[in-house]
Amino acid sequence: MNCQIEICASEFPTEYFQLLRCGVNLLSMADKIQKDAVDALAGVLFDGMTIMAGGFGLCGIPENLIAAIRVAGTKHLTVVSNNCGIDGFGLGILLESGQIKKMISSYVGENKLFEQLYLSGALELEFNPQGTLAERIRAGGAGIPAFFTKTGVGTLVAEGKEIREFDGEDYVMERGLTADLSIVKAWKGDAEGNLVYRKTARNFNPMMATAGKVCVAEVEHIVPVGGLDKDNIHTPGIYVDRLLAGAKFEKRIERVTTRPRADKVGS
Amino acid sequence: MAWTREQMAARAAQELRDGYYVNLGIGIPTLVANYIPAGIHVTLQSENGMLGMGPFPYEGEQDADLINAGKQTITELDSSSYFSSADSFAMIRGGHIALSILGGMQVSQTGDLANWMVPGKVVKGMGGAMDLVAGVKRVVVVMDHVEKSGAPKLLKACTLPLTGKGVVDHLITDLGVFEINRGKSPVKLVALADGVTLDEIRSKTEAVFEVALA
Fold it and tell me: ipTM higher than 0.90?
């Protein structure tokens, strides 16, 4: 790093050297990029931990990091994720290996093994309305311990929770949610941890990136710092501790639905 | 002769107004997109993070990063935008969506809706349904009038766990159309399906309702 300073010194403003004298070295900021998913999770996994995993269905899931957790064999996990993958893919592979103790989700209807494990009592389940789940994670990441919402008032979801009236309407108190680790998937990222998601693969990833004590992001493309449009960064790097380029992305589709091309109709 | 799924969807499409932002649920509500009346422009919201949902892609052009809330592949429009789940539900819970059309298991005369859980059976979860009924300005339910067993689904009070209390504005079944008005006024039968008699609908409905056919 020092040699780099010598080479570039003439290009740096005097403020930079003042910062250096105060012990802040801008050039030695740790590079967040890791070799692979296994390296990226080194030292952060422990039995009984809570993990948030981004994605909606199989769209925008951190599939490489999920596979690495399977390899690591970490047990008794509480997993916060809108869904739980499908049989044999996504979080479904952590169900198969018996690593998940509890799920906090809004919808798990795509997974037969989930059903079996749940009905047999081998798996705990906490259902949150999807918007409540998203907001709990957003709040958790923003240091907001609780909030009030109309969603779920008068239903099972509100049982045992504080109800308060505001402007003549009832609201239920929901708690902010954080995790020991969040694993997210983005389209592009840089060494600073800045992330950009693609289309509907964004979903829960940005909030989860803010709500993990440690956030590890897997991306399809690592770009040089400066390669992302600064006005259009979805997750600023402050939230991301480690970053890796996924070794491969299957990006499975749950329901391929298409329409025939007009020029093929009747041919 | 009751209405078919397509006829129910077409009837639900009459609830659309020009300029509406609309969320369509899974099943029959999804079909509503095929019956948007001519001259009416609506923007479809998908709660997984998209405004301006386009049609299904051509074969071979599906994109794993572009799905709707039913996990089906879709396309974007020039006017589309993408956002996070938190932003998506801020739209829904903040009252910015004009209309939500969703399926139902039971509706009560007080405007309650049950559509997410049958105790003792498979539990899949409520997804975004509780947020939609709590936050969207107008809630339209589309469902069969009776269960496969013949048991009525428009009831005095729901017996299944609720999705929302006093949330249903309008109900379209295969037998007719009801104004529920969130239970703030008596339920009104406002239309009968083709070939369905008042006697038939009375015999298949537990809820108390007034007849106000146009």
Answer: yes
